[in-house]
């Protein structure tokens, strides 16, 4: 049975694909930066601080670092998509009528 494609193509489909690609690129870049910024103090703290050494196992460290990466990605991607949506509002597209 063939799959049906119910996707509705917008007139500015190429522009929206470029906007999504830009949002993903910016999100990945920010995720890498935020992951690095959080990983260094987390890993150093787990080696130096007695409380962190006793209470933060490898899973907890990985969760802390991955939460920062995920938050950095989604916040940045959301901001980029909203910025592009603001630029493409109906009032700015069709002011001639």
TrEMBL record:
InterPro entries: Enod93 (IPR005050). It comes from the Eukaryota. The chain crosses the membrane at residues 31-52, 58-77. The keyword Chloroplast does not apply. It holds the Pfam family ENOD93. The keyword Transmembrane helix applies. Keywords: Membrane, Transmembrane, Transmembrane helix. This is Early nodulin 93. It comes from Oryza brachyantha (malo sina). The gene is LOC102699840.
């Amino acid at each position: 049975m063939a799959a049906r494609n119910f996707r509705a193509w917008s007139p500015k489909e190429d522009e929206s694909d470029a906007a999504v690609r830009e949002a993903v690129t910016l999100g990945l870049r920010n995720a890498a930066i935020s992951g690095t910024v959080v990983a260094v103090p987390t890993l150093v703290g787990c080696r130096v601080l007695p409380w962190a050494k006793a209470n933060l196992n490898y899973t907890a460290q990985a969760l802390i670092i991955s939460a920062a990466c995920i938050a950095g990605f989604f916040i940045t991607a959301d901001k980029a998509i909203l910025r592009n949506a603001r630029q493409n509002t109906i009032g700015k597209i069709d002011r001639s009528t």
